[in-house]
Amino acid sequence: MSIIVIPDGSHRVRRFRLGIRSLQLVAGVMAAALLGIAWLGFDYCRTSLDRSELQHLRAENGSQQELIRSLSVDLENLRREMVVLAQNDAKVRLMAELSRPAPDTPAGLGGPIEVDAAGELSELQQHIDQIRRDIDLRRQSLEEIQSFFNDQNSMLAAKPKGWPTKGWVTSGFGRRLSPFTGRRKLHHGYDIAARTGTPVLATAHGVVSKVASLSDYGKIVVLDHGYGYQTYYAHNSKILVKVGQRVQRGEKIAAVGNTGRSTGSHLHYEVRLNGVPVNPKRYL
């Protein structure tokens, strides 16, 4: 292969001859140069992309670190609130005379939650798991306390309280002279004198367990209040409830009368605890 070079304004012509080997060498050098340029371009593009991605990851990592710090602060505040709840729970249980809280109840300790700069979340996860366990403990304790107070409310509602009718006491609880025989005999309740038809009220929540007309008690209503309490309302002129009916404290169940073994219009009122008559004075 011959290369002829003719300079402008000159008559000298230069001729260069290249053999096959020289051409191959030149072609190889050019190919290597092109490959080098291509590789440099590719490496530059890859480096630019890596740098951009690195900047993006750094920004994202900074945001995550900031979020973790914020979550750590919130978690610490939540843990402190759980400690306060545990202390209040212990106070309520003490006042209610319940058993002491579970031994793994969180104690009154604290301090900021630390998360390392590398973003390790194991410690944070441990605190989250601990708070979950504390929440379960508080839930169980709250259910127990609620059940206790529900029982207390039920017991208070079942305990007789107040007067069953408006009137005045003509005979109290205890031994007295019988108005029929003149002999001393135990009187199991209160006799409350009132006009015939005066409303007779239930003194506690309960269920009507007996409605009858007896020779001694006359027309009688017996209420079963649970927890061992029963109340008797005797000598009524009218019965306003039926066996099995649920009644509330203060509900009208009968009317004062003079039925049965009675010397005048009055209500005979008894309170029994576990089947034993007790002095109604305790419950008025």
Keywords:
alpha+beta, Glucose Permease (Domain IIA), Cell_wall_metabolism_enzyme, 2 helices, ten-stranded antiparallel beta sheet, M23ase beta-sheet core domain-containing protein, coiled coil, 284 residues, membrane, M23ase_b-sheet_dom
What does it look like?
By secondary structure, this protein is of the alpha+beta class. Among the domains are: 79-158, no CATH class; 168-283, Glucose Permease (Domain IIA), CATH 2.70.70.10. The chain has helices at 20-95, 122-158; strands at residues 2-5, 14-17, 168-171, 174-177, 184-187, 190-193, 199-201, 206-214, 218-226, 229-239, 246-247, 252-256, 266-273, 276-278. Strand 8 (206-214) and strand 9 form a beta hairpin. The chain is rod-shaped, with a radius of gyration of 49 Å. The termini are far apart.
Shape: rod-shaped
The residue fraction in helices comes out at 25-40%
Largest sheet: 10 strands, antiparallel
- What would CATH call the architecture of the domain at 168-283? Distorted Sandwich
Relative strand content: 25-35%
What's the rounded overall pLDDT mean? 83
Secondary-structure map:
Layout: E1 2-5, E2 14-17, H1 20-95, H2 122-158, E3 168-171, E4 174-177, E5 184-187, E6 190-193, E7 199-201, E8 206-214, E9 218-226, E10 229-239, E11 246-247, E12 252-256, E13 266-273, E14 276-278
Antiparallel strand pairs: 1-2, 3-6, 4-5, 6-13, 7-12, 8-9, 8-11, 9-10, 10-12, 10-13, 13-14
Keywords: Coiled coil, Membrane, Transmembrane, Transmembrane helix
Domain M23ase beta-sheet core: 186-280
Pfam family, one: Peptidase_M23
